[in-house]
Amino acid sequence: MAMDELDGLMQSSVVSTSFQEEADRQENILRPKLLKDFQGQQRLKDNLAVFVQAARERKESLDHTFLIGPPGLGKTTLASIIANEMGAEIRMTSAPALDKPKDLAGILTNVTEGSVFFIDEIHRLKPALEEMLYIAMEDFEIDWVIGQGPAARTMRIPLPRFTLVGATTKAGSVSSPLSSRFGITCHIEFYDEVELSSIIARSAQIMNINIDEEAIRHLARCSRGTPRIANRLLRRLRDFASVMGDGKITIAVVDHGMERLGIDSNGLETQDRNILRTIIEFYDGGPVGAETLSISVGEAIESLEDFYEPYLIQKGYLKRTPRGRMTTKKAYDLLGIPCKRNMDDNQGILF
Fold first, then answer.
1. Each residue's pLDDT tens digit in the chain (351 positions)?
2. CA proximity to 93, closest of 105, 81, 85, 104
3. Secondary structure (3-state) at 320
4. How far is CA 133 from CA 46, 155, 164, 220, in A?
5. What is the DSSP string of 243-299?
6. Which of 276, 225, 233, 226 is nearest to 257 (CA)?
7. Which of 66, 178, 224, 261 could form a disulfide with 267 if both were Cys (CB 3.0 to 4.6 A apart)?
8. From CA 351, how far away is CA 335, in angstroms rounded?
9. What positions carry a catalytic annotation?
């Protein structure tokens, strides 16, 4: 590779230092900027506060940080908060956007001392890029091959000390050599009703939405334990209240809006119920494999595994066994379908 090509790495456009899409821009308005403003996840926040303060007192970069959790729980927000708390620049990208080693090298050669480099969906990194990260994370260097054939030589490029923040919804899909290089691991859990109520109240205040306390609590129950969904539903209820009412979101507005959107009081959407009904009616309650179920309900397997299944499992409507997905008695009761077989909790996990 010629030296001018190496210089060209400095011009990489894969990374973004701001939210470029309009949807992200709107969501960014609601993102807390500091740990004290981040609602919920108290133990995680308390630990991060200690790690950040210690790093600042030592005038060092924060250890590489691994954020694990379902979509919409605040991984990107926490990455930005880490940068803000450290007083550092942040660069953001996602693993699918990194196609070749030069894409990653272009970002790494542009990081500044103490900056935060955020990679979303890090479980989707290609092996060659993972290997490049190993050296970058441990030694703050990268190896780059200059030239071709017998004349080729390896150049070691030093990097400033930076903090890599990796986010994933599938921790099990991240290789052990990569995950073991993160000094800090944060597991982000679904939010409870009280935490979501605080988030909704804060968002309503920022967006100047008039909503009463009862409506806030009801909306929190319908939000799948997920702030992103809570904020999305809050915007839609604002629309219903504005067009069909006096602008105030009441419990009646929430009930009407949820009915129109096909969301029940447990936060289950039409597709959630379709998934459960399909397993019961077509596969006798299971077990059924993820690929087969994905085809049956017309849903991408990634959406099935990352969005629908975690909440259905958490709420006790679905369970995963070595042989596949199985519905529980609670799912039969939800859909009003008589249960014709033994629902022993041990069924399906013996083989």
1. 444 554 554 444 454 444 345 555 666 789 999 999 999 999 999 999 999 999 999 999 999 999 999 999 999 999 999 999 999 999 999 999 999 999 999 999 999 999 999 999 999 999 999 999 999 999 999 988 777 777 777 788 999 999 999 999 999 999 999 999 999 999 999 999 999 999 999 999 999 999 999 999 999 999 999 999 999 999 999 999 999 889 999 999 999 999 999 999 889 999 999 999 999 999 999 999 999 999 999 999 999 998 999 999 999 999 999 999 999 999 999 999 998 766 554 444 433
2. 104
3. strand
4. 28, 16, 9, 39
5. HHSSS-B-HHHHHHHHHHHT--TTS--HHHHHHHHHHHHHHTT--B-HHHHHHHHT-
6. 233
7. 224
8. 28
9. 75-76, 120, 169, 228
What residue ranges define each of the domains in the chain, with the CATH number in brackets?
Answer: 3-187 (3.40.50.300), 193-261 (1.10.8.60), 270-335 (1.10.10.10)
- What is the number of other CB atoms lying within 10 angstroms of the CB of residue 53? 11
Cβ atoms 49, 35 nearer than 8 A: yes
